[in-house]
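Why GNAT superfamily N-acetyltransferase? Reviewers of the renewal asked for a concrete example.
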Amino acid sequence: MEHIVEERPPYDPELVALLEAAFAELVGRYGAEGRSRVKVGARYFVVLDGGRHAVGCGALQTFGPGSEHPGDAELKRMYVAPQARGRGFARAVLAALEKAARAAGHPALRLSTGHRQPEAIALYESSGYARTDPWGKYVNEPSTYCYAKVLEDEIRLVLQ
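Here is what the prediction returned.
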């Protein structure tokens, strides 16, 4: 079954509810360190269950000039509601985020995840993301794992 993924504004009620649930789950896994609710200036996407209700989300945020990875995009706010897990919704959101990043001309997509999120680690590694050295605020966070996937090689392969 192909899942429908839509871009939504950051104030969309279904998106806001998913982000609140994601933050609550992070607090459950990491305690106070999971409380960060820093708003990101990003493009948000949701995946729909049968075309009716948003059951998962993710976002793309561009690394700005002067950052360690200018031009790349960072994957943020990946989450699927517990009742919808195991049905391909996370892969659908990830594929849509990669497509949007490619369309925007980002050479790579980067992300961070925590050591207490084995399902996220498995998703990213099985989707072609490779572990990288930590960057920015993650440099001194040994419980945070950073990953990247080069997108320009995929574009080049399609064109050849």
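The longest strand covers residues 53-62. This is the kind of structural detail the renewal will allow us to pursue systematically.
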